[in-house]
Amino acid sequence: MNVKKFLLSCLTVAAAFSVNAQETEKTENVYVPNWYVQGQFGGQHTIGEIPFTDLNSLNAQIGVGYNFNEIWGTRLTINGWKSKAGWETTNKLTNHTLYETWAWNYVSPMVDGTVDLANWILGYDPNRLVNFGVFAGIGANIAFCNNGADAANKEIIAEYDFTKRDALRYLWKGSKAFFTGRVGANVDFRITNNWAAGFELQANIISDKYNSKRAGNADWYMNALIGVKYTFGKSNTTRVLPVVVPVDQLVTDKVKDVNNEIDGLKKRIAELEECCAESKAVIAEAAEKAKKELAEPFRRDIFFSISSNTIQASELQKIKDVVEYMKKNPDSIVEVTGYADRGTGNPTINAKYAHNRAITVMKALVAEGISSARIKESSMGDRVQPYAEPTLNRVAICIVQ
Fold it and tell me: What is the pLDDT of residues 260-319, one digit of tens each?
């Protein structure tokens, strides 16, 4: 049996199964706050009692907005063109049906809060072809040119011989400003990184006096718009993050394999002892080196409460364990990795919790006398779950090597 070849195989096995935290490189999309402008054109329907088609009119809107992050934003829009209303009734004395319609112009500046539901629900993806969201806002409606309502009022008075009041109880002339609220939803289709085409539906609530008719309830008008949006500059960038792969299971599997190899080595060592006594010292030295290289790193898991990055009193002893071990081993370094529970929150919030948990543990180690140069800090957010039990993933894992 060739002793040199056997010893070389022992060293090769030890080196191959030496286990440390493995790192892979991943990229992360990072949202960049941005300004945008949009122009839209479509139609309006004012709620009323006459046929649907007689209350439709054209509508247009321009706006400028700012997205604070991938979910929340705000915008200022100016919407306007024309609204319509009508009156249909039959004079019981003459059996004559009176049908009157009228229109007036308006301009409505509004301020909206916007929510990107696609990014909130599905996670941020700058290459998603279709995004959808909702918005709500308040503003004013400045109406003018209501001559058609005045003429209709006169026709109704003549038909019914009103003498003491207007037929249109809320008839206004000249111009009139109304407080307005609205809610709506939108769908955007990505064309390029800066251009998108979109569709928007709005429901606007306004004073009962808007259409000059007294109804005893608020008036409504609905807008349906299509248009384009242009985003200034870049709305996202990418960064490369080192991702520490959990090694618990990997270490266990490798140790089992090594144990099997060691069992085989023991048998071969016994055979070699009979034929080559001088090789015992060399074999023992190689086996000892393999055991040292295969030793599991010192590890402590610091668990946190939900939505917290404060170290609990019950976890402080683990910090002391790490400090004591590192002081006894002055050449050692510690890797602190923060995690968050995927079952709660969302990826953005969980990334912050994981990062803050790692920072909190790092500061605790420094406060106990460990140099920051001996500490490596990273965070996984909720992308990796080291434990099967969800609540245990609210953790910062310390591995000392």
Answer: 888 888 888 877 777 767 666 666 676 666 465 445 789 999 999 999 999 999 999 999
> What is the number of other CB atoms lying within 10 angstroms of the CB of residue 147?
12
Q: Which two tokens stand for residue 397?
A: 């894992």
Strand intervals (E) in 191-332 = 195-206, 219-231, 236-245, 298-303
Interval 341-385: pLDDT, tens: 998 889 999 999 999 999 999 999 999 999 999 999 999 999 999
The structure tokens listed for 109 are 């500046």
Q: Are 73 and 119 in contact (CB under 8 A)?
A: no
Reading the block at residue 172, the tokens are 């206004």
Task: Give CA–CA dist 170/128, Å, rounded.
Answer: 49
| CATH 3.90.190.20 at 33-234, yes or no | no
Residues of the chain under the 50 pLDDT cut:
1, 7, 11, 13-23, 290, 293-294
Per-residue confidence (pLDDT) for residue 235, from 0 to 100:
87
Q: What is the pLDDT of residue 233?
A: 92
Query: In the beta sheet, which residues pair with residue 228?
Result: 39, 197
Please answer whether residues 293 and 15 qualify as being in contact, where contact means their C-beta atoms are separated by less than 8 angstroms. yes
Q: CB of 371 within 8 A of CB of 359?
A: no
Domain pair 33-234 / 297-401, same fold: no
DSSP β-ladder status, 334-338 and 395-400: antiparallel
* DSSP letter string, 259-284: HHHHHHHHHHHHHHHHH-GGGHHHHH
Helical (H) or strand (E) element with 190: strand 175-190
What is residue 248's predicted lDDT score, i.e. its pLDDT?
A: 66
What's the CATH superfamily of 297-401?
Answer: OmpA-like domain (3.30.1330.60)
Taking every pair of Cα atoms in the chain, the longest distance, rounded to a whole number of angstroms, is: 131
Query: Can you list the pairs that 160-163 forms with residues at least 24 positions away whose Cβ atoms lie under 8 Å?
Result: 160/91
Global pTM value? 0.55
> How is the chain split into domains, by residue range?
1-29+244-295, 33-234, 297-401
